[in-house]
Design brief:
heterodimer, A: 290 residues, alpha/beta, Elongation Factor Tu (Ef-tu), domain 3, Rossmann fold, 2 domains, 7-stranded mixed beta sheet, B: 158 residues, alpha+beta, Jelly Rolls, 4-stranded antiparallel beta sheet, 4 helices, 37% helix, 28% strand
């Protein structure tokens, strides 16, 4: 079995540590779109706060007593040790319970889990980020990392799509990102008279960009159907499969590859993923029953 | 004459036309015109008679469909080097299936659909290049429509 692009070795010799949640207080709630909000957390125990480090693309298991756990990508700046952000869509039992939380409420956290975006390997390359909907939050830490080390990366493009303009995540930050020489291009599936931006799906806009396949890495996250066509467009532009990275979402339950709920082919998404280099997935990605 | 040279020069820059032989490019220039449109200007309405196929050189054009009780829904925006109004070349309903208006000040090329169709019929070498290009556009739009129809951002449990 090949290894993931940037595996993070959690210490599974003592699974009790990974299974025990640490408690964190909700310090702020930022509504992002209809049914989506970012929850800013701070660990109750200050040593937990200091010890917690994550890499862009990793996730935490968020625990609400009486409701259970949900795997949530970390959407905040990995260098900001004061605030830990999770952008959550309220769709399941746990996340609907999260939607009822208020500032000051306490949740359990386990993590960080999973592989991360290969930020060191991307240095010196052009980075093309193509994502949609709730696929932007797992990529925001990578954007922050690039911004903090902008000189280490070549041309950086963010192509982001959402269902409608009111579903766009983090619109207040686009100008900040643009000022950091990130080309932010936004599209929506359905427009209205008030929307003067692009209308159309993410993959179709690839034609608009000049991508040098020899030095461009493509990072993608979002609905799997969108990822499929993003990969198709990237490969049509001769971007090698070794330069395409995807973050996948599956039914993650334990976060450490023990329960098997998130298995995809030979991988447990929670352990070997969620970020994969595409050549690792290519043989069974988009194959029925995988 | 000067306008014709400007038009031909613009046509030559479009990847669409780079596969055309010089004499075919001349034919295309004869049936085309440049048009400037101001932000908000309506190019055609849904249901209008189809007469031109357009290529955007600068700006952004929006395609809208009117849905009763919902109003106009913007289904697509056309950017530089993309084509719209292509169904006028292969007419099914002989009416525009969407309305088009400029989102920002734009420069477009309009090509007379009927003349283009006739020329494709008379000269199959020319017709093959044009139809191949159109097929690529239709294929791309079909994919876009499919993905929009799938509503890929719909919440899985909604």
């Amino acid at each position: 079995m090949t290894t993931t692009a940037t595996p993070i070795q959690n210490d599974i010799s003592n699974p009790g540590i990974l299974l025990r949640p640490k408690w964190a207080e909700v310090t702020e709630i930022t509504p992002e779109a209809d049914g989506i909000a970012t929850y800013w957390l701070r660990f109750i125990n200050s040593s937990d706060q200091q010890e917690f480090h994550f890499n862009p693309g990793q996730f935490n298991m968020l625990y609400l007593p009486g409701f259970g756990e949900a795997a949530i990508s970390i959407s905040s700046d990995p260098q900001d040790h004061e605030k830990l952000g999770h952008t959550i869509r309220f769709v399941g039992n746990v996340t609907r319970a999260v939607s009822r939380l208020k500032v000051g409420d306490v949740v359990g956290l386990r993590g960080p889990f999973g592989s991360c975006w290969p930020m060191s390997e991307l240095e010196g390359k052009d980075v093309f980020i193509a994502c949609g909907g709730i696929g932007l939050p797992p990529l925001r830490p990578a954007i922050y990392k690039i911004m903090r080390n902008r000189e280490k990366y070549g041309k950086v493009t963010l192509l982001y799509g959402a269902r409608t303009s009111s579903d766009l995540m983090f619109p207040r930050e686009y100008e900040v990102w643009r000022k950091a020489q990130i080309d932010v291009e936004v599209t929506v599936d359905r427009g209205d008279a008030n929307w003067s931006g692009r209308v159309g799906v993410v993959p179709m806009w690839f034609y608009h960009f000049r991508i040098d396949p020899r030095k461009t890495a493509v990072l993608t996250c979002g609905p799997e159907i969108m990822i499929r066509f993003v990969i198709f467009e990237a490969m049509a532009r001769r971007v090698p499969v070794e330069s395409i990275y995807v973050s996948l979402e599956r039914n993650m339950k334990c976060g450490q590859g023990s329960c098997g709920h998130c298995q995809m082919g030979p991988y447990f998404i929670c352990r070997e993923g969620p970020v994969f280099r595409f050549d690792e997935l290519q043989s069974f990605f988009n194959v029925e029953e995988f | 004459m000067e306008n014709r040279d400007v038009l031909k020069n613009e046509l030559e820059k479009i990847p669409w036309f780079q596969a055309l032989k010089p004499e075919h490019l001349e034919k295309m220039t004869d049936m085309a015109h440049l048009r400037r449109v101001k932000a908000g200007e309506l190019l055609f309405r849904e249901g209008d008679r189809e007469d031109f196929v357009y290529i955007v050189l600068k700006g952004r054009i929006a395609l809208d469909i009117f849905i009763p009780h919902r109003g106009k829904v913007r289904i697509y925006t056309v950017e530089p080097l993309d084509v719209f109004g292509w169904s006028s070349v292969t007419p099914v309903s002989h009416q525009r299936t969407a309305g088009a208006s400029a989102v920002v000040d734009s420069l477009i090329i309009g090509i007379d659909s009927e003349k283009l169709r006739d020329e494709c019929e008379k000269d199959h070498d020319f017709g093959y290049v044009v139809m191949l290009r159109l097929l690529k556009i239709v294929s791309s739009r079909l994919l876009v429509s499919r993905l929009q129809l799938l509503d890929m951002f719909e919440s899985p449990e909604a």
